[in-house]
Amino acid sequence: MKSNNYKDYLHSYPDYDGFYGHFGGSYIPDDLQKIMHEIRDAYDTISRSYDFISELRSIRKHYQGRPTPVYHAQRLSRKIGNCQIYLKREDLNHTGAHKLNHCMGEGLLAKYMGKKKIIAETGAGQHGVALATAAAYFNMECDIYMGEVDIAKQAPNVARMKLLGARVIPVTHGLKTLKEAVDACFEAYLKDPVTQLYCIGSVVGPHPFPMMVRDFQHVVGVEAREQYFDMTGEDPDVVTACVGGGSNAMGIFSGFLDARSELHGVEPLGRGPKLGDHAASLTYGSEGIMHGFNSIMLKDKKGEPAPVYSVASGLDYPSTGPEHSYLHEIGRAKYFTADDKEAVQAFFVLSRLEGIIPALESAHAVAHAMRLARENSGSKPLSILVNLSGRGDKDMDYVIEHYGTGEDEYAQFLKDNA
Predict the structure, then answer these.
(1) Can you give the CATH number for the domain in which 175 is found?
(2) Which of 66, 101, 194, 313 is deepest in the core (most CB within 10 A)?
(3) What is the pLDDT of residue 312?
Protein backbone atom coordinates (compact mmCIF):
# COMPACT_ATOMS: atom_id res chain seq x y z
CA MET A 1 0.00 0.00 0.00
CA LYS A 2 1.34 3.41 -0.94
CA SER A 3 2.04 5.64 2.03
CA ASN A 4 -0.36 8.30 0.72
CA ASN A 5 -3.28 5.96 0.02
CA TYR A 6 -5.21 4.87 3.08
CA LYS A 7 -8.68 4.42 1.59
CA ASP A 8 -8.57 0.63 2.03
CA TYR A 9 -6.32 0.59 5.09
CA LEU A 10 -8.86 -0.76 7.59
CA HIS A 11 -9.72 -3.62 5.26
CA SER A 12 -6.06 -4.44 4.61
CA TYR A 13 -4.66 -4.28 8.15
CA PRO A 14 -4.18 -6.46 9.98
CA ASP A 15 -3.66 -9.42 7.67
CA TYR A 16 -5.26 -12.80 8.40
CA ASP A 17 -2.57 -13.66 10.95
CA GLY A 18 -2.93 -10.35 12.76
CA PHE A 19 0.12 -8.50 11.44
CA TYR A 20 0.51 -4.80 10.75
CA GLY A 21 3.66 -5.05 8.69
CA HIS A 22 5.87 -7.12 11.00
CA PHE A 23 4.16 -5.94 14.20
CA GLY A 24 1.34 -7.79 15.93
CA GLY A 25 0.72 -11.49 15.40
CA SER A 26 0.00 -14.06 18.09
CA TYR A 27 3.00 -15.40 20.03
CA ILE A 28 1.29 -17.70 22.49
CA PRO A 29 1.24 -21.42 23.44
CA ASP A 30 -0.56 -23.78 21.08
CA ASP A 31 -3.40 -24.47 23.51
CA LEU A 32 -4.11 -20.76 23.83
CA GLN A 33 -3.66 -20.23 20.09
CA LYS A 34 -6.56 -22.58 19.44
CA ILE A 35 -8.72 -20.40 21.68
CA MET A 36 -7.62 -17.24 19.86
CA HIS A 37 -8.59 -18.82 16.53
CA GLU A 38 -12.04 -19.58 17.94
CA ILE A 39 -12.46 -15.98 19.11
CA ARG A 40 -11.26 -14.61 15.76
CA ASP A 41 -13.60 -16.86 13.80
CA ALA A 42 -16.53 -15.99 16.06
CA TYR A 43 -15.77 -12.28 15.80
CA ASP A 44 -15.38 -12.39 12.01
CA THR A 45 -18.76 -14.09 11.69
CA ILE A 46 -20.85 -12.53 14.45
CA SER A 47 -19.67 -8.91 14.09
CA ARG A 48 -20.85 -8.85 10.48
CA SER A 49 -24.33 -10.15 11.22
CA TYR A 50 -27.34 -7.83 11.00
CA ASP A 51 -28.55 -8.79 14.49
CA PHE A 52 -25.20 -7.99 16.13
CA ILE A 53 -24.74 -4.69 14.29
CA SER A 54 -28.31 -3.56 14.99
CA GLU A 55 -28.08 -4.39 18.69
CA LEU A 56 -24.71 -2.66 19.08
CA ARG A 57 -26.00 0.46 17.34
CA SER A 58 -29.01 0.51 19.63
CA ILE A 59 -26.79 0.15 22.70
CA ARG A 60 -24.56 3.01 21.56
CA LYS A 61 -27.50 5.33 20.96
CA HIS A 62 -29.88 4.48 23.79
CA TYR A 63 -27.51 3.28 26.54
CA GLN A 64 -24.11 4.87 25.98
CA GLY A 65 -25.44 8.23 24.77
CA ARG A 66 -23.59 8.30 21.47
CA PRO A 67 -22.69 10.27 19.50
CA THR A 68 -20.57 12.25 21.94
CA PRO A 69 -20.08 15.88 20.82
CA VAL A 70 -17.10 17.75 19.46
CA TYR A 71 -16.62 20.94 21.48
CA HIS A 72 -14.72 24.10 20.51
CA ALA A 73 -12.55 25.10 23.48
CA GLN A 74 -12.77 28.83 22.75
CA ARG A 75 -11.37 30.24 25.98
CA LEU A 76 -8.37 27.90 25.92
CA SER A 77 -7.77 28.72 22.25
CA ARG A 78 -7.94 32.47 22.82
CA LYS A 79 -5.71 32.31 25.88
CA ILE A 80 -2.88 30.53 24.06
CA GLY A 81 -3.43 32.31 20.73
CA ASN A 82 -2.97 31.41 17.06
CA CYS A 83 -4.84 28.14 17.42
CA GLN A 84 -8.28 26.62 17.48
CA ILE A 85 -8.54 23.67 19.84
CA TYR A 86 -11.47 21.25 19.66
CA LEU A 87 -12.26 18.35 21.99
CA LYS A 88 -13.94 15.06 21.10
CA ARG A 89 -15.89 14.62 24.33
CA GLU A 90 -15.48 10.93 25.15
CA ASP A 91 -15.66 12.00 28.79
CA LEU A 92 -19.42 12.33 28.14
CA ASN A 93 -19.71 8.70 27.05
CA HIS A 94 -21.53 6.64 29.71
CA THR A 95 -19.12 5.68 32.55
CA GLY A 96 -16.93 8.67 31.67
CA ALA A 97 -14.46 7.39 29.10
CA HIS A 98 -14.01 5.81 25.68
CA LYS A 99 -13.54 2.35 27.21
CA LEU A 100 -17.24 1.50 27.12
CA ASN A 101 -17.13 1.56 23.29
CA HIS A 102 -15.20 -1.70 23.11
CA CYS A 103 -16.48 -3.15 26.38
CA MET A 104 -20.09 -3.15 25.19
CA GLY A 105 -18.90 -4.65 21.91
CA GLU A 106 -16.91 -7.34 23.72
CA GLY A 107 -19.78 -8.00 26.11
CA LEU A 108 -22.20 -8.37 23.21
CA LEU A 109 -19.78 -10.74 21.49
CA ALA A 110 -19.55 -12.81 24.69
CA LYS A 111 -23.34 -12.98 24.79
CA TYR A 112 -23.53 -14.23 21.20
CA MET A 113 -20.79 -16.78 21.97
CA GLY A 114 -22.73 -18.10 24.97
CA LYS A 115 -20.19 -17.05 27.62
CA LYS A 116 -21.19 -16.71 31.27
CA LYS A 117 -18.37 -14.51 32.56
CA ILE A 118 -16.19 -11.69 31.22
CA ILE A 119 -12.81 -10.89 32.75
CA ALA A 120 -10.25 -8.13 32.24
CA GLU A 121 -7.32 -6.20 33.62
CA THR A 122 -7.42 -2.50 34.41
CA GLY A 123 -4.93 0.26 35.23
CA ALA A 124 -6.71 3.56 35.81
CA GLY A 125 -9.91 1.63 36.44
CA GLN A 126 -11.92 3.03 33.52
CA HIS A 127 -11.73 -0.23 31.58
CA GLY A 128 -12.71 -2.10 34.72
CA VAL A 129 -15.70 0.16 35.32
CA ALA A 130 -16.73 -0.10 31.67
CA LEU A 131 -16.52 -3.89 31.65
CA ALA A 132 -18.35 -4.15 34.98
CA THR A 133 -21.04 -1.96 33.41
CA ALA A 134 -21.22 -4.25 30.38
CA ALA A 135 -21.45 -7.30 32.66
CA ALA A 136 -24.34 -5.75 34.55
CA TYR A 137 -26.08 -4.86 31.28
CA PHE A 138 -25.69 -8.38 29.85
CA ASN A 139 -26.29 -10.12 33.22
CA MET A 140 -22.86 -11.79 33.35
CA GLU A 141 -20.31 -12.42 36.05
CA CYS A 142 -17.24 -10.18 35.97
CA ASP A 143 -13.72 -10.41 37.41
CA ILE A 144 -11.36 -7.41 37.21
CA TYR A 145 -7.63 -7.79 37.91
CA MET A 146 -5.96 -4.63 39.19
CA GLY A 147 -2.54 -3.91 40.66
CA GLU A 148 -2.44 -2.91 44.32
CA VAL A 149 -0.70 0.38 43.47
CA ASP A 150 -3.50 1.32 41.08
CA ILE A 151 -6.18 0.20 43.54
CA ALA A 152 -4.78 2.73 46.03
CA LYS A 153 -4.61 5.52 43.41
CA GLN A 154 -8.00 4.87 41.87
CA ALA A 155 -10.26 4.23 44.87
CA PRO A 156 -13.37 5.84 43.30
CA ASN A 157 -13.24 3.49 40.31
CA VAL A 158 -12.64 0.48 42.54
CA ALA A 159 -15.79 1.39 44.45
CA ARG A 160 -17.74 1.81 41.22
CA MET A 161 -16.68 -1.64 39.97
CA LYS A 162 -17.83 -3.24 43.20
CA LEU A 163 -21.14 -1.35 43.15
CA LEU A 164 -21.72 -2.67 39.63
CA GLY A 165 -21.27 -6.23 40.90
CA ALA A 166 -17.74 -7.01 39.70
CA ARG A 167 -15.16 -8.85 41.75
CA VAL A 168 -11.96 -6.76 41.98
CA ILE A 169 -8.94 -9.04 42.38
CA PRO A 170 -5.78 -7.32 43.71
CA VAL A 171 -2.51 -8.17 41.96
CA THR A 172 0.33 -8.19 44.48
CA HIS A 173 3.43 -9.26 42.55
CA GLY A 174 6.04 -7.22 40.67
CA LEU A 175 5.35 -3.50 40.44
CA LYS A 176 1.68 -4.17 41.19
CA THR A 177 0.49 -2.06 38.24
CA LEU A 178 -0.97 -2.61 34.76
CA LYS A 179 1.53 -5.11 33.31
CA GLU A 180 1.16 -7.40 36.30
CA ALA A 181 -2.64 -7.12 36.07
CA VAL A 182 -2.47 -8.28 32.44
CA ASP A 183 -0.24 -11.21 33.46
CA ALA A 184 -2.67 -12.29 36.17
CA CYS A 185 -5.70 -11.97 33.92
CA PHE A 186 -4.11 -14.09 31.18
CA GLU A 187 -3.32 -16.79 33.76
CA ALA A 188 -6.92 -16.79 34.96
CA TYR A 189 -8.23 -16.98 31.41
CA LEU A 190 -6.09 -20.02 30.60
CA LYS A 191 -7.74 -21.90 33.47
CA ASP A 192 -11.20 -21.55 31.91
CA PRO A 193 -11.45 -20.32 28.31
CA VAL A 194 -14.75 -22.11 27.78
CA THR A 195 -17.22 -20.29 30.03
CA GLN A 196 -15.46 -16.91 30.16
CA LEU A 197 -14.15 -14.38 27.64
CA TYR A 198 -11.09 -12.21 28.23
CA CYS A 199 -12.01 -8.67 27.23
CA ILE A 200 -8.66 -6.95 26.86
CA GLY A 201 -8.57 -3.25 27.65
CA SER A 202 -6.60 -1.80 24.75
CA VAL A 203 -5.28 -2.43 21.22
CA VAL A 204 -2.71 -4.88 22.61
CA GLY A 205 -2.39 -8.62 23.10
CA PRO A 206 -2.41 -11.47 20.60
CA HIS A 207 -4.55 -11.31 17.47
CA PRO A 208 -7.51 -10.73 17.24
CA PHE A 209 -7.63 -8.40 20.29
CA PRO A 210 -5.89 -5.34 18.77
CA MET A 211 -8.15 -5.54 15.72
CA MET A 212 -11.34 -6.05 17.73
CA VAL A 213 -10.70 -3.13 20.06
CA ARG A 214 -9.78 -0.84 17.16
CA ASP A 215 -12.92 -1.82 15.27
CA PHE A 216 -15.17 -1.14 18.27
CA GLN A 217 -13.41 2.19 18.89
CA HIS A 218 -13.63 3.21 15.22
CA VAL A 219 -16.97 4.88 16.00
CA VAL A 220 -15.03 7.70 17.71
CA GLY A 221 -13.11 8.57 14.56
CA VAL A 222 -16.16 8.31 12.30
CA GLU A 223 -18.20 10.62 14.53
CA ALA A 224 -15.38 13.08 15.12
CA ARG A 225 -14.58 13.56 11.44
CA GLU A 226 -18.22 14.12 10.48
CA GLN A 227 -18.80 16.48 13.42
CA TYR A 228 -15.64 18.50 12.85
CA PHE A 229 -16.43 18.88 9.16
CA ASP A 230 -19.98 20.01 9.96
CA MET A 231 -18.54 22.66 12.30
CA THR A 232 -15.70 23.93 10.12
CA GLY A 233 -16.07 22.62 6.56
CA GLU A 234 -12.64 20.96 6.60
CA ASP A 235 -10.46 18.42 8.40
CA PRO A 236 -8.32 19.55 11.36
CA ASP A 237 -4.61 20.19 10.89
CA VAL A 238 -3.78 17.84 13.77
CA VAL A 239 -5.64 15.01 15.50
CA THR A 240 -4.06 14.07 18.81
CA ALA A 241 -4.64 11.53 21.58
CA CYS A 242 -2.75 10.02 24.49
CA VAL A 243 -1.07 6.64 23.97
CA GLY A 244 -0.42 3.95 26.52
CA GLY A 245 -1.69 0.77 24.91
CA GLY A 246 -3.42 3.13 22.52
CA SER A 247 -7.12 2.28 22.24
CA ASN A 248 -8.51 5.82 22.30
CA ALA A 249 -5.84 6.98 19.85
CA MET A 250 -6.52 4.15 17.39
CA GLY A 251 -10.23 4.89 17.68
CA ILE A 252 -9.93 8.49 16.57
CA PHE A 253 -6.94 7.96 14.24
CA SER A 254 -8.85 5.31 12.29
CA GLY A 255 -11.36 7.93 11.17
CA PHE A 256 -8.66 10.23 9.77
CA LEU A 257 -6.17 7.86 8.14
CA ASP A 258 -7.07 9.07 4.64
CA ALA A 259 -7.45 12.72 5.70
CA ARG A 260 -4.93 15.53 5.31
CA SER A 261 -4.66 15.73 9.11
CA GLU A 262 -1.45 14.90 10.96
CA LEU A 263 -1.95 12.19 13.58
CA HIS A 264 -0.11 12.80 16.87
CA GLY A 265 0.11 10.23 19.65
CA VAL A 266 1.28 11.47 23.04
CA GLU A 267 3.19 9.12 25.32
CA PRO A 268 3.82 9.65 29.07
CA LEU A 269 7.31 10.97 29.84
CA GLY A 270 6.57 10.79 33.57
CA ARG A 271 9.45 12.10 35.65
CA GLY A 272 11.90 12.17 32.73
CA PRO A 273 13.79 10.08 30.14
CA LYS A 274 15.59 7.76 32.57
CA LEU A 275 14.45 4.14 32.26
CA GLY A 276 11.89 3.46 34.97
CA ASP A 277 10.74 7.07 35.13
CA HIS A 278 8.43 7.02 32.11
CA ALA A 279 6.33 4.77 29.86
CA ALA A 280 7.20 6.24 26.44
CA SER A 281 7.63 2.98 24.53
CA LEU A 282 7.70 4.31 20.97
CA THR A 283 10.04 7.14 21.93
CA TYR A 284 12.63 5.12 23.84
CA GLY A 285 11.84 1.44 23.19
CA SER A 286 12.84 -1.24 20.72
CA GLU A 287 11.12 -4.15 19.03
CA GLY A 288 10.11 -7.02 21.29
CA ILE A 289 7.44 -9.54 22.17
CA MET A 290 5.29 -9.20 25.30
CA HIS A 291 1.84 -10.48 26.19
CA GLY A 292 1.65 -12.43 22.95
CA PHE A 293 2.32 -9.68 20.38
CA ASN A 294 5.30 -8.07 18.69
CA SER A 295 5.61 -4.32 19.06
CA ILE A 296 7.90 -1.59 20.37
CA MET A 297 8.54 -2.00 24.08
CA LEU A 298 10.71 -0.74 26.89
CA LYS A 299 13.30 -3.31 28.02
CA ASP A 300 15.70 -3.69 30.90
CA LYS A 301 19.31 -4.87 30.50
CA LYS A 302 18.15 -8.48 30.27
CA GLY A 303 15.71 -7.70 27.48
CA GLU A 304 12.71 -8.16 29.76
CA PRO A 305 9.87 -5.62 30.06
CA ALA A 306 11.27 -2.63 31.94
CA PRO A 307 9.62 -0.98 34.93
CA VAL A 308 7.52 1.99 33.88
CA TYR A 309 5.89 4.97 35.53
CA SER A 310 3.31 7.66 34.79
CA VAL A 311 1.14 9.88 36.92
CA ALA A 312 -1.68 8.45 34.77
CA SER A 313 -2.32 4.83 35.75
CA GLY A 314 -3.88 4.03 32.39
CA LEU A 315 -0.66 4.85 30.53
CA ASP A 316 1.97 3.00 32.58
CA TYR A 317 2.42 0.02 30.22
CA PRO A 318 5.87 -1.02 28.89
CA SER A 319 4.72 -1.57 25.31
CA THR A 320 2.20 -0.12 22.88
CA GLY A 321 -0.34 -1.43 20.41
CA PRO A 322 1.24 -3.07 17.34
CA GLU A 323 -0.78 -0.86 15.00
CA HIS A 324 0.76 2.22 16.58
CA SER A 325 4.22 0.75 15.99
CA TYR A 326 3.31 0.20 12.34
CA LEU A 327 1.86 3.68 11.83
CA HIS A 328 4.98 5.08 13.47
CA GLU A 329 7.26 3.03 11.20
CA ILE A 330 5.52 4.04 7.95
CA GLY A 331 5.27 7.66 9.06
CA ARG A 332 1.49 8.03 9.01
CA ALA A 333 1.42 8.93 12.70
CA LYS A 334 3.96 10.84 14.77
CA TYR A 335 4.56 10.26 18.46
CA PHE A 336 5.51 12.82 21.08
CA THR A 337 5.75 12.95 24.87
CA ALA A 338 4.32 14.98 27.73
CA ASP A 339 5.68 14.66 31.25
CA ASP A 340 3.80 14.63 34.55
CA LYS A 341 4.27 18.36 35.10
CA GLU A 342 2.81 19.25 31.70
CA ALA A 343 -0.10 16.84 32.10
CA VAL A 344 -0.98 18.10 35.57
CA GLN A 345 -0.87 21.72 34.40
CA ALA A 346 -3.16 20.85 31.47
CA PHE A 347 -5.48 19.10 33.95
CA PHE A 348 -5.88 22.32 35.93
CA VAL A 349 -5.96 24.68 32.95
CA LEU A 350 -8.75 22.84 31.14
CA SER A 351 -10.70 22.62 34.38
CA ARG A 352 -10.48 26.36 35.02
CA LEU A 353 -10.84 27.71 31.50
CA GLU A 354 -13.47 25.36 30.11
CA GLY A 355 -15.15 23.78 33.14
CA ILE A 356 -14.02 20.34 31.98
CA ILE A 357 -11.99 18.16 34.37
CA PRO A 358 -10.06 15.71 32.16
CA ALA A 359 -8.61 12.35 33.07
CA LEU A 360 -4.86 12.53 33.68
CA GLU A 361 -4.43 10.27 30.67
CA SER A 362 -6.34 12.68 28.43
CA ALA A 363 -4.48 15.63 29.95
CA HIS A 364 -1.32 14.43 28.18
CA ALA A 365 -3.00 15.06 24.82
CA VAL A 366 -4.32 18.42 26.02
CA ALA A 367 -0.78 19.35 27.10
CA HIS A 368 0.54 18.46 23.64
CA ALA A 369 -2.15 20.58 21.96
CA MET A 370 -1.23 23.52 24.19
CA ARG A 371 2.45 23.09 23.30
CA LEU A 372 1.69 22.93 19.56
CA ALA A 373 -0.40 26.08 19.83
CA ARG A 374 2.37 27.99 21.62
CA GLU A 375 4.93 26.88 19.05
CA ASN A 376 2.78 27.80 16.04
CA SER A 377 4.41 30.84 14.48
CA GLY A 378 2.59 30.62 11.17
CA SER A 379 0.09 33.24 10.04
CA LYS A 380 -2.76 30.70 9.97
CA PRO A 381 -4.19 29.48 13.29
CA LEU A 382 -3.46 25.81 13.83
CA SER A 383 -6.59 23.66 14.18
CA ILE A 384 -6.19 20.81 16.66
CA LEU A 385 -8.69 18.10 17.52
CA VAL A 386 -7.98 16.41 20.86
CA ASN A 387 -9.55 13.10 21.78
CA LEU A 388 -10.59 13.86 25.35
CA SER A 389 -10.69 10.18 26.21
CA GLY A 390 -12.06 10.43 29.75
CA ARG A 391 -13.12 12.60 32.65
CA GLY A 392 -11.06 13.22 35.75
CA ASP A 393 -13.42 12.24 38.56
CA LYS A 394 -11.27 9.19 39.22
CA ASP A 395 -8.13 11.34 39.58
CA MET A 396 -9.41 14.15 41.77
CA ASP A 397 -8.50 12.69 45.16
CA TYR A 398 -4.99 11.79 43.98
CA VAL A 399 -4.40 15.15 42.29
CA ILE A 400 -5.64 17.20 45.23
CA GLU A 401 -3.56 15.15 47.67
CA HIS A 402 -0.34 15.62 45.66
CA TYR A 403 -0.87 18.97 43.88
CA GLY A 404 -3.59 20.82 45.76
CA THR A 405 -6.22 22.64 43.72
CA GLY A 406 -3.84 23.94 41.07
CA GLU A 407 -3.26 27.58 42.01
CA ASP A 408 0.47 27.41 41.29
CA GLU A 409 0.08 25.52 38.02
CA TYR A 410 -2.63 27.85 36.76
CA ALA A 411 -0.69 30.95 37.79
CA GLN A 412 2.34 29.70 35.86
CA PHE A 413 0.15 29.08 32.81
CA LEU A 414 -1.21 32.66 32.98
CA LYS A 415 2.33 34.02 33.33
CA ASP A 416 3.60 31.99 30.35
CA ASN A 417 0.67 33.08 28.18
CA ALA A 418 0.36 36.73 29.26
Answers:
(1) 3.40.50.1100
(2) 313
(3) 95
